[in-house]
Design a protein that fits this description.
Layout lengths: L1 E5 L3 H14 L3 E5 L3 H6 L7 E4 L5 H11 L4 E2 L10 H16 L1
Helix pairs in contact: 1-4
């Protein structure tokens, strides 16, 4: 599974990357901001996007949703803060759906 992680929340990103590396062989790309992805529109290479930018997640998520039907996970927003393990479990669910 190919995952794009966008965000500037370094501690969360490092925890999530550690969980993924420990449990899977997924391909993961990380970006500090989503502006390059939005400009190039190269979202077809991914199976899922995780947005962990605490500042502009809402706007970025809406912009991404307008460009793609890919699942977009937002672990940190105004309503909740999911742990890296919870995000990992959701990613596993997306992988299972993709395989079926």
């Amino acid at each position: 599974m190919n995952i794009l992680i966008i965000g500037n929340e370094t501690a969360f990103k490092q925890n999530l990357l550690a969980v993924i590396a420990d449990k899977t062989h997924w391909q993961v790309e990380t970006l500090e901001t989503g502006s390059l992805v939005l400009e190039k529109g190269q979202l077809t290479a991914y199976d899922c996007i995780v947005v962990i930018d605490c500042g502009t997640y809402g706007l970025l998520t809406r912009q991404l949703q307008a460009k793609t039907k890919l699942p977009i996970l937002c672990p940190i927003d105004d309503w909740h803060c999911l742990s890296s393990r919870e995000i990992f479990e959701r990613l596993k669910g997306i992988e299972n759906e993709k395989e079926n």
